[in-house]
Amino acid sequence: MTPTGGLRRNVISAVVTAIGALILALLLLEDPLVEYRLGELAHQTLSDAVARARDRLRAGVEPDAVADEVGALTGTRLTLLEGDEVVGDTGLDDSQRSAAPVHAESLAAFRAGQPVPRSEFGEHVIFAQEGALVIQATQSTAVTERVRSSVRELLLLAGVMAAVVALFLTTVLTRTFVAPARELTAVADSLAAGDLSARARSTRDDELGAIGRALDRMADQLAERIDRLRTEQDRLRTVLNSMIEAVFVTDSLGRIEQTNDAFDRLIEGAAIGRTPMEALRSPELHEAVRAARRGEARAVAFEIQLDEELRSFSGHVAPLQEGAGVVTVLHDVTELRAADRIRRDFVANASHELRTPLTAIRGFAETLKDGVVDDPEAARRFLDVILKHTLRLQALVADLAALAKAESPEHRLELEEVDVEAVVVEVVRGLASKAEGRGVQLVFEPPAEPLRVQAHERALDQVLINLVDNAIKYTPEGTSVHVRVRAKDEDVLLEVNNPGAAIPPHHLERIFERFYRIDVGRSRDVGGTGLGLAIVKHLCAQMGAEVKARSRDDEGTTFTVRLARVVAPDAPLPKAP
After folding, report:
1. Does residue 288 contact residue 298 with C-beta atoms inside 8 Å?
2. φ, ψ for residue 371, nearest 5 deg
3. Of 131, 147, 210, 544, which is least packed with CB atoms within 10 Å of its CB?
4. For the chain, how are helix, strand and coil distributed in percent, rounded to 5?
5. Is residue 576 predicted with pLDDT exceeding 60?
6. What's the predicted TM-score (pTM) here?
7. How many domains does the chain have?
8. pLDDT band at residue 37, thresholds of 50, 70 and 90?
């Protein structure tokens, strides 16, 4: 806030006080100084009158004439005494001389050679001896009093005039300095309020101009530094927000004061101002942050429930310099741990799946080697078992290779327009003999019109083969597997239905996992590897398709693949049935 009139008021007050003190000092010193000086002047006047009177007496002039002449000339009163007799007095004739005022005590003191007071009875007085005559020169003190009064009045008038002039000059001068000072104050207030464009731009050559230019230089440097800090802050914010790791920084009180986008996506609500414990509810993280606040950097690993999902995190917590706070970097390792768990399960399942046929092959081969080969019927039976398990191993290895290829990041499918009906017809024709061998009828329900989809022909062929082959394996003898193709809105649906036993819901959620089997014994009996549906899922994902399964007691199990339909620009979309 800019002060109003403070400097001018203070300067004027100081000047008035100084002038008042000066006038008071003059008045106090004037009386004794003037009195002393007037007394000296009166004594000098009287001395001059006495000297003149002596000269005239020595010139032979009569005493009475001398008193009149010199008294009139010097403005004093001379009284000439011979003994105790007045022989001359200023302003009195011969008949009045006896009434002439004589300072008898002072005269007696003079004659006795003692000090004579310079004034008494309201008059200045001196005595002098001239022959037989004594000259008494006097002057009324009223004269000096009038002079003293005039001097006092002049001093007062001069003081008042000096005060008026001083106040006027002070006002003018303070205005000259106060206005620029107010401008400088306004600029400083604007800078303090954040307006970095404020400048004094002073052209003065005095100290205020130098202050204004210094203030402008400071503002320029301040603006430059703030711009540099903002640039660095923006760069740091960009770097933080580009990180996939979640980052947050706490202040010296342990409350979160800065986060990046990855951290904001983790939690519900604003994190600023909350503690890490309030934001993430992790005792392990809370303890690591407390240790970092004590100056001890720590690695941390914890699990928390976010969005109804258990998420795993690992990270590092480190103190900032001089106890200013703590910085924490968190890695979401949920998918890594899930992938590691899947890898371990896959290795265990694959080892188990490979071990079973290899054990059977080895057992029957050793039996043949030990002599069963001499029994043709037994040997043929053993060789059939060995061939069966060899084929199973071959199918397992082929599915493993197909699954590895489908999951590979380098494996990219080039999508094209595919006649879906033609692909389904080829698959049904190819698996018809297998269905007949199991006593199952394979039924294709074609669409009402030609349909083309955006897909990869060989991948779509593999998806259909796996789904239809899987349906044939689990369809009871004497029933039918239905394959349907139909349009729905902007998509094409491929449905494979088998009327076998319904899949329980808790199994239905996991049937697309690798090596997952509902009935392990039955799956091996029908020759399943446990990888077919996993391959279907990955191939559909690469084609941008969606695969789902539903299962009910009254209709069995239906697998549905949803593909993007390719429609001619002028062709209307079919209505959903």
Report:
1. yes
2. 135, -10
3. 131
4. 55, 20, 25
5. no
6. 0.45
7. 5
8. low
